[in-house]
């Protein structure tokens, strides 16, 4: 049992060491200004122009090469000290016998570098912005979609079918009824015939009596 625990701890330590090596392998070492030369410059924006076009991240490092015993690198904590080339706040001074200093970025944020000599006249001023750790972006969890799906939109109301067109109205006039003889007219005719017959009979009887 103890042997198994020892083997597990050894394996875990090996994995942690491998991850650390891989992480450091991704770190980049930059030379200040692109060449590494840290010295008087006639262009007061030279170093910052270079830094603006460079991407710095945690565990990256920057190398300063300067004339030993005559120059140095100061890392100041205040932006005001950087602007005025003073050291009123916390200061880290790098002055190596070899004339070379390497500073590693162990955090994200602003790093203000000035020269140990009068940087207002030598224009040895540099601001570096260090971005977040590479792993914080590459291993960021992908947001999972919400489990509750949005309700489906209500179906649009179906339009009522169009009403059928009205039936065509037959405008042909109805045929007039056939003309019938008025009963009064027939009756009148009968009376006339009867009257004529009576007159003829009366005339005949009168003639017979006269003769």
TrEMBL record:
Residues 1-27 form the signal peptide. The keyword Protease does not apply. Pfam families: Cu_bind_like. The keyword Signal applies. InterPro entries: Cupredoxin, Phytocyanin-like, Phytocyanin_dom. One of its GO terms (molecular function) is electron transfer activity. GO terms for cellular component: plasma membrane. Keywords: Signal. This is Phytocyanin domain-containing protein. Residues 145-160 have a biased composition (Low complexity). Residues 137-186 are annotated as: Disordered. Residues 28-132 form the Phytocyanin domain.
